[in-house]
Write a structure and sequence with these properties.
The chain has three domains: about 30 residues, no CATH class; about 200 residues, v583 domain like (v583 fold, Alpha-Beta Complex), CATH 3.90.1700; about 210 residues, Alpha-Beta Complex (Enterococcus faecalis V583 fold), CATH 3.90.1710. It is about 35% helix and about 20% strand. Strands 6-8-7-3-9 form a five-stranded mixed sheet. The longest helix is centred in the middle third of the chain and has 25 residues. The radius of gyration is 22 Å and the shape is globular.
Length: about 475
């Protein structure tokens, strides 16, 4: 004890702040840990899962697989061609849902998509076929795809095709429409449909020609640069969008398409700071899918919302969804919109947080607080707090302000329940009435009750 007191001590304080404040007042070095007892009722399942001899190695393998993936943009193609979608099949964000339980923005996007595909003359005419189940709905995640907000993908929409060269596995995402009144936020006016038609007839083919002429684009490398340039790859993608355009523009110009069309495509991409989001998402999906189906692993491999339910999938529990009620984000609103106008959280874009970007990497993108609310100090605190519920740090995504510490990687179900800390997501907000479009942006967390459900399944698997 005498020898211990001669050392330069550092204190770790958990729980009540009184002790930490007293020590700090005496110039002691204090690290404060945000901790609370495990959620009541989870103790037995936690004990079972933590005692699983497979867990440590399984989680280490999950982390290794995620970090080994290199996501390359290799093509741009119609969704029907690569996803095998029929004329009456529509993909959507989040866990499975039917028309009866669908939220306003998801309904609006499905109605608009039906008009875009020519299934109906007017979006309102799609309600009947959707109610009767004449149009099949299926999650994007079930097709190696992801979609932002409502996430609706139909056969005539073009998608980015990302591939891991080491394994040949692929992931897909639609092209980004921009902000405001767009299909993914549930808007379906004539200008929304017309924009989608232009994207399929002009933008998609030009991007395809650019990628094929240029060669594969290393999306993982761009993501790494983005994090060091002030993007967090969810609601801030400005640097990523411009790096993508720099990579593809010469090949687009040389593609043989009319100069006016190429100029319009370049203007659209360059003027849409969120364009790269639809590449970041499938890159994250591709990496996390590599960690699926590892017996004993407690790593979350997907977080997704359909505007009604928030669902997670976990490596050690196969394709099962664990769901709860989606929450309304807390943030900033556009114009005269307010909390009463906002729909509960929606979209597959939380796949970025699942890998440690987005809300987990806000320390790398302090300017994001001007879009989602809060302060720069909040952004730093959010990232630091996420290290407490994750398994590792990403070797590729380094945060300059944290001395190039890797972003938090691998949400651990057991750590969430042991600490009471929930994953932090920054997100856009859709109007709850179909046809409204975007009403704001903010911060949100998953409902707490989905994690005990996942833990129960992990405990059952461990005891089997």
């Amino acid at each position: 004890m005498t020898d211990l007191l001669k050392r330069d001590l550092q204190l770790i304080a958990a729980g009540v702040d009184l002790f930490a404040e007293a020590a700090a007042g005496q110039a002691a070095r204090v690290t404060r840990i945000d901790w609370s007892p495990p959620l009541a009722g989870t103790e037995a399942d936690l004990a079972t899962v933590l005692a699983d001899p497979r867990r440590a190695d399984a989680n280490a393998e999950a982390v290794r697989r995620v970090q080994a993936v290199r996501a390359l943009l290799v093509d741009v193609l119609p969704a029907g061609e690569v996803l095998g979608l029929g004329p009456r099949t529509m993909l959507h964000a989040g866990p499975p849902i039917d028309w009866v339980r669908a939220s306003g923005p998801l309904r609006g996007a499905l109605m608009g998509a039906a008009a875009f595909e020519g299934l109906v003359a007017d979006p309102q005419d799609a309600v009947g076929p959707l109610e009767r189940g004449e149009i099949t709905l299926d999650p994007c995640h079930h097709h190696s795809a992801v979609g932002p907000m409502a996430g609706v993908i139909t056969r005539s929409m073009w998608v980015f095709v990302l591939e891991d060269p080491a394994t040949g596995r692929r992931a897909y995402c639609s092209l980004n429409e921009g902000l405001g009144k767009v299909l993914r936020y549930g808007a379906y006016s004539d200008d929304v449909i017309e924009r989608l038609r232009w994207m399929s007839s002009v933008l998609g083919p030009i991007l395809q020609a650019g990628v094929r002429r240029n060669g594969p684009v290393d999306v993982t490398a761009i993501l790494a640069q983005m994090v060091q340039m002030g993007d967090e790859a969810h609601n801030r993608n400005r640097a990523g969008t411009l790096m993508l355009l720099r990579e593809l523009l010469p090949a687009m110009i040389e593609s043989g398409f009319p100069a006016s069309d190429v100029a319009e495509a370049a203007r659209f991409v360059g003027g849409n700071d969120h364009f790269f989001l639809n590449l970041a998402m499938p890159a994250c999906k591709l990496a996390l899918d590599a960690a699926r189906d590892i017996p004993g692993s407690t790593m979350v491999v997907a977080m997704a919302r359909n505007g009604t339910d928030f669902g997670i999938q976990v490596s050690g529990t196969g394709d099962a969804w664990f769901t709860g009620a989606a929450q309304v984000p807390d943030g900033l609103y556009l114009g005269d919109f307010g909390p009463d106008d906002a729909n509960p959280d929606i979209g597959d874009s939380a796949i970025t947080e699942t890998i440690g970007l987005g809300g987990f990497a806000m320390a790398a993108a302090p300017a994001i607080v001007r879009f989602v609310g809060g302060t720069v100090a909040d952004a730093l605190a959010n990232t630091r707090r996420m290290y407490e519920i994750t398994l590792a740090e990403h070797a590729t995504f380094a945060v300059p302000v944290l001395d190039f510490r890797g972003t938090p990687l691998g949400i651990d179900v057991t750590k969430v329940l042991r600490t009471g800390i929930l994953p932090q997501i920054n997100t856009g907000m859709a109007g709850k009435v179909a046809g409204t479009g975007q009403v704001g942006a903010g911060l949100v967390t998953p409902p707490l009750d989905i994690f005990p459900k996942a833990l129960r399944a992990l405990a059952a698997a461990a005891a089997a």
